[in-house]
Amino acid sequence: MNLSTQTKPQDAGVEKASQSKIGHIHIPKCGGSFLKNWFRDNDIPLPKVGHHTLEERRHQADWWWATVRNPYHRMVSFYEFFPVKARRELELGRKPQRFEQYRKMIDVHSKGFRYFLEHGDQAIWYLHRPQWEWLVDSQGQVDCIIKLEEVYEQWHQIQTKTGCTQPLPRHTPKTQQLEQYYDNYTTGLVQELYAKDFDNLGYDK
């Protein structure tokens, strides 16, 4: 691939290192919103793909990256996200066509973590989709997979691809006490629902 020598102003710390169009598969609750801000702040374009899989959006870019997350932590994060997101949207009165969904999210959360794992897909249909299925299609998989737990150690891959040397701002995630959520049943359920993630993304059961 030919490399471009076009440079941005020095203080921006950006040099276009590749002519390829970069795309991001935004798997929910994997730090995507925070990480996309780095692209925005450094004036690096990303196609808007929303929460869609590689199979659905392959045509929009020719080099794809994504972050993934430990399934146990991701599900706890998703569980606690349900009422926060829903109540905020209901208070703001936006997207009235989704009010029923937001109320369902609150109801699912109120019934506990076990119920959420079993029936949360009634509120958000893709909840039970393994992360791995977001990342693959008939042509292969995304070009770069970064574990959220190791994002600061692995972000150099994105810096190299974009030619941007600006560091990723420090972000401290919320501490999750997993023992408050998991017992033998819920642990086994996560292992069953997200078996492809444990098998393909290097997370320990």
Key phrases:
205 residues; mainly alpha; two-stranded antiparallel ribbon; 10 helices; 5 strands; 42% helix; disordered N terminus
Annotation, overall tally of beta strands:
5
Principal-axes geometry comes out as: globular
In DSSP terms (H or I, runs of 4 or more residues), the helix count works out at: 10
Strand portion, in percent? 5-15%
Oligomer: single chain
Using only CA atoms, what is the Rg? 19 Å
Strand arrangement, largest sheet?
1-2-5
Q: What ranges have pLDDT less than 50 throughout 5 or more consecutive residues? A: 1-19
Q: Profile the largest sheet.
A: 3 strands, parallel
H/E series, N to C? EHHEHHHHEEEHHHH
Distance between the termini: 39 Å
**What is the helical fraction, as a range of percent?**
40-55%
Q: What's the average pLDDT?
A: 90
| Classification by helices and strands | mainly alpha
Please explain how this structure is put together.
This protein is mostly helical and 205 residues long. It contains ten helices and five strands; from the N terminus they run βααβααααβββαααα. It has helices at 32-41, 54-57, 71-92, 99-110, 113-119, 131-135, 151-154, 156-162, 184-193, 195-200, and strands at residues 22-25, 63-68, 136-137, 140-141, 144-147. Helix 3 crosses helix 4 (99-110) and helix 5 (113-119) runs parallel beside helix 9. The longest helix is centred in the middle third of the chain and has 22 residues, at 71-92. The termini are far apart. The relative contact order is 0.18. Mean pLDDT is 90; it is low at 1-19.
